[in-house]
Amino acid sequence: MASRYVTLFDILGFKVRLNLSWIFLVVLATWSLARWYFPEYYLGLSDSAYWWMGAVATMGLLGSLVFHEFAHSLVARHYGLPISTITLLVFGGVAQMEKEPPSPRAEFLMALAGPISSFTLGAAFYLAFEVGYQIQLSLPILGVLGCLAFGNSLLGGFNLIPAFPLDGGRALRAGLWQWTKDFRRATRWASMAGSILGFILMLSGVAQAFTGNFIVGVWWFIVGLFLRGAAKASYYQVVARTMLGSEPIQRFMTPNPASVSPDLSVDKLVEEHFYRSLHTMYPVVDDSRLVGCISSKQISGIPRDQWNQLFVRDVALPCSKDNTVDIETGALAALAIMNRTGNSQLIVIDGDRLAGIVTLKDLLKLLALKLDLEGVA
């Protein structure tokens, strides 16, 4: 999971990371601005000017999106919702919360914070554009400022559409939640609105492409596809949190798992454990005390001719909050750790003793079974 993301920076206690799908988006956005938007509205410039304008504006829009998500995160932090990571996806971003908002009011204010921040940033760029025009800044600079003003206004306006998981959809969910007193039902209805809007945008994109507006059509289709998928994923995430929230980790962990000694050589670890069991991770136990863990991924980074020279203790990772979880921890908290760290397996501990291993596959199996027996309505 972690390989799909690149961490950009840490600021104010938030880690900002980028989904690798953004490589595609940056290329498409730069190309769209350089070959269509800027030549349409700012005539007479060279091709190289249009390309650097497109690149700078794309980076500015990326920064604007981070600013938008920061606004959500700061309001969430005010209401006691722990957010440590902001992830930028193909279209939009997400401030990853480990639990749901405590009340409809908190949800509503968190939702509005994003569009307000975008409108504020858009107004600031428009003011900069006007001042730049008066002092006769160069046309390329004015073009970038105007693009950022328009882009932020568009981001704020689009997010006000009442379709989950857009900010307007979250505001709609807050209202439905206040009315029905049922958070899951409110999420289901708001997500249906998001799924329908996504489908409409995809159809509109296809229609635009066939009528000659190819670039506009591609963008509408991408946005619709993202929105439709995000609406469904967001609803099932709420279902997962609801169903797993009260489940203790020991209920579905693998108890008394196989472990290895820190004195075992790496070549014997591979031959006698990894190749025989096909497990990808082992706890490291010294005199009945858990001291760390070792995975096949770690071994893959060691040259083959060094396997007989190294021991497990030389390469094992020490126990930490990223690879272990206490036996009293709930399943939802374990899932949050997996999502944050990218680890698909966690060692379950009881004090300093090994109690078991839990995997993402175990959690998903339990969730699938509960969905099958209890439904998702």
Short description:
By secondary structure, this protein is an alpha+beta fold. The protein is built from twelve helices and eleven strands.
Care to describe what's here?
By secondary structure, the chain is of the alpha+beta class. It contains twelve helices and eleven strands. The chain folds into two domains: 2-244, no CATH class; 249-374, CBS-domain. The chain is 59% helix and 15% strand. The strands form three sheets. The protein has a four-stranded mixed sheet with strand order 1-2-3-4, covered by helices on one side. The protein has a four-stranded mixed sheet with strand order 5-11-10-9. It is globular and about 75 Å long.
Number of domains: 2
Task: Tell me the strand percentage band.
Answer: 15-25%
Distance between the termini: 29 Å
* Spatial sequence of strands, sheet with the most strands: 1-2-3-4
User: Which regions have little confidence, pLDDT < 50, spanning 5+ residues?
Assistant: none
Mean pLDDT: 83
Counting copies of identical and different chains, the oligomeric state is single chain
| Estimated structural class | alpha+beta
- What order do the helices and strands follow? EEHHEEHHHHHEHEEHHEEHEEH
Rg estimate, integer Å: 25 Å
Main pleated-sheet profile: 4 strands, mixed
What's the total helix number?
Answer: 12
Helices, strands, pairings?
Layout: E1 5-11, E2 14-19, H1 22-41, H2 47-78, E3 83-88, E4 93-97, H3 104-134, H4 139-159, H5 167-180, H6 183-210, H7 214-244, E5 254-255, H8 266-277, E6 281-286, E7 289-295, H9 296-300, H10 312-315, E8 317-318, E9 324-326, H11 331-341, E10 345-350, E11 353-359, H12 360-374
Parallel strand pairs: 2-3, 9-10
Antiparallel strand pairs: 1-2, 3-4, 5-11, 6-7, 7-8, 10-11
Helix pairs in contact: 1-2, 2-3, 2-4, 3-4, 3-5, 5-6, 6-7
